[in-house]
Amino acid sequence: MNVVRKITFLITLITIVLFSLTARAENNQSYTLDSLIKEALASNPEILSTKNAFDAASARIPQARSLADPTIEFEYDRITADRELSGNPMKTFSVSQDIPFPTKLYLRAKIASKLAKMAYENYQAKERDIVSKVKSAYSELSLIYKEIEINKENKDILDQLSKTATTRYGAGQGTQADALKSQVELARVDNELILLEQKRVTAQARLDVLLNRDPKTDFGIPLAEPAIQFDQTLDDFYKLARANNPELKAFAYAVDRGQAAVDLARNEFLPDFNVRFKQMVDKGSAVDGAWAGMIGVTIPLWFFEKQSFGVKEMKSDLEMVKAEYKGKENAVLFEVNDAYARAVANKKLVELYETAFIPQAKEAVSVAMKGYESGRTDFLAVLDSQRMLTEFKLEHYKAILDLRVALADLEKVVGGDIDY
Known about the structure:
By secondary structure, the protein is of the alpha+beta class.
């Protein structure tokens, strides 16, 4: 019996431990950039809004190519009955249908189709915009965590320097000013850490809003992103933007829609038709041979004021859209140029910080520390060299952030992911 109790106790203990570990793992879950992007694509309200706009535009296509609803009429005529002295009223049922010239239905459906394609490209453009913002926000949050880490490392070093300066002052080998300077520098770092925490909360909330989450949700420390390497040229990005930019494609569809509108305006010179069938009834039954049929045709009699100016209006709209398309193309290529220039410049800066500035600053700190310990260098030189190393590290990660933001902007404007 005791053995059974012991086994039961061990199983319960193991279950509790496993549950605790699972819960802790869930609380410390790391969110990858890809998982956040997928969540944003599924949950962001702006994306959902443009998707619904596309669905609504798509639903207008079958409506545009459909005929108008037929008209069913019932006629109860005592006037004619009294005139014929029969005493029985005439009862007739009739059905009529307006039928536009067939090409008009085709062109109306074509215009609705182009509008739906424009709505789809707007939906794609919004997706690219939100993905770009998520990447930028994620990189910004990563930078802030790096800045906090660097400042904490700097604080630890400064704390050691402060203790050394205080010890040297107590031993008569240093000055009180050195000890005070170290305390002032520590206070400056503490102040910076407070500001960084405020920036972290703001950046976290910005990312939460993009994911349609509560702004108080904390993701924890973002996972490290891989190093950036890209070798595409500016011409490569120009070609990608011309072919894939969603906003540019939407303007191209707008030009097609404008041309279809011109064609429809020209078709308004063609007649429409009306077909009607009428059947007389008596005592609830159709009277044999008592029916009538009719076909009507509209005549565009006032074409010189209506249809002619309708064509002129649509032509002007088409030329306006073509000009807007060209302006949008120029704007897109400018955005490509700007983002590419920022990416190239920051890529060079990152390489310089990694290969020259930071190694040299580390060497300067090492030399200053050795000189201070041997009494050949004053304390201010140590502080300056340490401050320079910290600033180089911060600027290095700032350049990485700017590089990632530039690449995110490039992906947005070219309408697709970039290999880097």
